[in-house]
Amino acid sequence: MDRGGGGIMNHLLTTEDLDRATLEELLADADEFSEVLNRPIPKVPALRGKTIATMFFEPSTRTKMSFDKAAKALSADTMAFSASTSSLSKGESLKDTALTVRAMGVDLMVVRHGATGAPWRLAEWLDIPIVNAGDGAHQHPTQALLDCLTIKQRFGSLDGLRIAIVGDIKHSRVARSDIFAMATLGAEVILVGPPTLLPLDTEGWPVKTTTDLDGVLETVDVVYLLRVQLERGGGSVFPSLPEYTARYGMTNERFSRLKDDAIVMHPGPMNRGVEIAHEVADDHRALILAQVTNGVAARMAVLFHLLGGESNE
């Protein structure tokens, strides 16, 4: 993450360059914002007068609504961009679209785009903070923050935890972001999946890899399940979904073999009956809805820091 003077971040594009102090500061602020969200009036005036644009060039439910809620909880104004109804359909370039929105007085852009690196280009073109809300199969840093917050709330710390990230890691921007954030906070990260859904090269990644979920199942504290990303070609590299479930799904039987205090997580949307059994998804040790709730607080912390919230508090 690029950082400017006075400890204020310039952009949030990736978790790879976040140090532990920065992560812990963001998580501490997110914890405080969790308390704000539980108040009768869940709002603070920290970013009053600021305008935040959500620029989503790909479909999204959780992330888009979460950022919108986070901005409004900080008393910021919001502008929503929809690619399907924009001038992109008339041939306008990404750069001109972004410059046009910036000219309307926007102070920060939240960007989701199918092209890897698109948020970096916007950070080069514009003079305002950019938050990467997902670029291709590359990064999704605020998802990693909310995931770490959820784990920290349950265990108190990530230090020494064993976390298995299971499934379509090759196509997952969530996995790439989680790996670096979780490892920086002291966790041991294990990537689990069929060979065709594991990255071809993990050199430089702070991870171990295995194709045997059952071999690590009883030793981990967190099982983080990923859906098979059919839209990115994930379903074309193994024979069938039932076979995937048999080898890598969190079935009721596998769930029963976890440690008593182990938790299950999923970034959503879930494919019930494929990577996670219906009963497991609804169990109290599956923290999937807690992740959604924590997404608002984590994104409040990011917006607060990027827009100089400390000076506005």
Write up this protein.
- By secondary structure, the chain is α/β, with parallel strands linked by helices.
- The protein has 2 domains: 5-140 and 293-312, 3-Layer(aba) Sandwich (Rossmann fold); 142-291, Rossmann fold, CATH 3.40.50.1370.
- The chain has 12 helices and 9 strands.
- It has helices spanning 20-37, 62-73, 94-102, 118-125, 141-155, 173-184, 213-216, 241-248, 252-256, 278-281, 288-306, 309-312; strands at residues 51-56, 77-82, 108-113, 130-135, 162-166, 188-192, 207-210, 222-225, 263-265.
- The strands form 2 sheets. The chain has a 5-stranded parallel beta sheet, covered by helices on one side. The chain has a 4-stranded parallel beta sheet with strand order 2-1-3-4, sandwiched between helices.
- α1 (20-37) crosses α11.
- The radius of gyration is 19 Å and the shape is globular.
Number of extended strands: 9
CATH overall fold name of the largest domain: Rossmann fold
CATH class of the largest domain equals: Alpha Beta
Q: Calculate the mean pLDDT score and round it.
A: 91
Overall, the morphology is globular
Return the string of H and E elements: HEHEHEHEHEHEEHEHHEHHH
Beta-strand level of the residues, as a percent range?
A: 5-15%
